[in-house]
Each structure stands twice: as C-alpha cells, then as structure tokens.
C-alpha cells in the first residue's frame, strides 16, 4: 500500500464562500487526520468590528492522505480541485510527500500556536543558521536549522517540505537547543 500525502490545488478564489478545502473537510471519506491545510491567523473588519480568523497560508495548497485510487473520484467530484504535478517530472506525475516527513511536519506545526510559514523564495540561505537538535519540550528530537534574523530576540527552528516550496518557522526555547557539528 502506498503511504503518501498527495498535494492538491484548490482553484477557488481566496474570497470564495465554499472553497474546495472546506468541501473536503465535510466529506466523511477525507475528514479526520487525512487532511492538512497550513493555516495562519488574519484580522478582518466585519460590520465595524475586528475579527481574527484562520485562513489558508497558501489558498491553493491542500495535503490529503489517501491512495491515488481513493482520491481520483474525489478530485473528479469537486471541479475546483486538482492534483499538483511535479515540476520537471513525468507527464501528470502527482506531487506527493512521504507519510513520515509529513507527519513530522504536522506534529511540529501543531505543537505550538505561533507558526510562521514561508515559501522557499522568502527564506534565503542567509536566514539559515546553525544545524540544531531540540532536546526536551514538545519538539523533542526535531532537527533543523536555526533561523537567524538580525534584531530578533526569539529563536526559531526551520522545518522544510522541499518538494512543496513550503517552510515553517517554529519558536523554540534556548534551553532546549543543542548544536550539531
């Protein structure tokens, strides 16, 4: 059995009332732990009041943990949903992430409330610092690069999903950081 997370595109407009990712959440075949959408907080003004809502970081990025045979009828059923394809790969080769890497990424992102997402264009090699491992705390055992921003008082661990052009920066405590040589 294939154990991958397929990367899908939601072609709905960002201001759509019922985008494809909301329709996927309502489907019993996909719901539960089989769906991941990177979300960020955004402040809106509605009827003169400020409201904080969670919206997708990238409006068209959806991860689904299903086999291709199970996912094909769902993608055919929802007209605003498509597979993302591998750039430079075979024709119509769907982009997918292995289950281990995706579960590690989801665990890290869900461990803390303050998560900042970046595309690879936004994270330059200048921001990557030393290679570190987290010892203790909620992120025990995670390895990655320390984000180095001038003037920042917080330390952040960068975790990458290379194929998907997505990185997450997660705040870590200085006490739990161990340098790797």
Describe the structure.
This protein has helices at 20-26, 68-77, 99-111, and strands at residues 4-10, 35-36, 39-46, 49-56, 62-64, 81-83, 96-98, 115-118, 128-134, 143-147, 155-161, 166-172, 177-179. The chain is α+β, with helices and mostly antiparallel strands and 181 residues long. The protein has a six-stranded antiparallel sheet, with helices on one face. Strands 1, 2, 5, 6 and 7 form a five-stranded antiparallel sheet that branches. A hairpin with an 8-residue loop joins strand 9 (128-134) and strand 10. The longest helix is centred in the middle third of the chain and has 13 residues, at 99-111. It is globular and about 50 Å long.
Low-pLDDT runs of 5+ residues are none
User: Using DSSP, what is the number of strands?
Assistant: 13
Biggest sheet record: 6 strands, antiparallel
Specify the overall morphology. Answer: globular
Distance between the termini: 38 Å
Structural class: alpha+beta
Radius of gyration: 18 Å
Q: Which range does the strand content fall in? A: 35-45%
* Spatial ordering of strands, largest sheet: 8-12-11-10-9-13
- The total of helices stands at 3
The helix fraction, in percent, is 10-25%
Average pLDDT figure? 83
Run of helices and strands: EHEEEEHEEHEEEEEE
Can you give me a brief rundown of this structure?
By secondary structure, the chain is of the alpha+beta class.
Q: Which terms summarize this structure?
A:
3 helices, about 180 residues, 5-stranded antiparallel β-sheet, alpha+beta, 6-stranded antiparallel β-sheet, globular
């Amino acid at each position: 059995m294939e154990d991958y997370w397929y990367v899908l595109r939601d072609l709905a407009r960002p201001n759509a009332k019922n985008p494809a990712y909301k329709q996927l959440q309502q489907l019993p075949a996909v719901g539960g732990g089989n769906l991941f959408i990177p979300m960020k907080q955004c402040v809106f003004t509605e009827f003169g009041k400020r409201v904080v809502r969670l919206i997708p970081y990238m409006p068209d990025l959806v991860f689904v943990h299903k086999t291709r045979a199970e996912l094909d009828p769902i993608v055919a059923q929802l007209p605003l949903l498509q597979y993302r394809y591998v750039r430079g790969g075979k024709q119509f080769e769907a982009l997918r992430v292995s289950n281990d890497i995706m579960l590690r990424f989801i665990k890290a992102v869900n461990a803390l409330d303050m998560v900042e997402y970046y595309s690879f264009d936004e994270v330059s090699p200048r921001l990557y610092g030393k290679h570190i491992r987290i010892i203790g705390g909620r992120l025990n055992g995670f390895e990655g690069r320390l984000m180095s921003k001038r003037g920042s008082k917080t330390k952040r661990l960068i975790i990458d999903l290379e194929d998907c052009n997505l990185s997450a920066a997660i705040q870590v405590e200085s006490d739990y950081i161990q340098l790797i040589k």
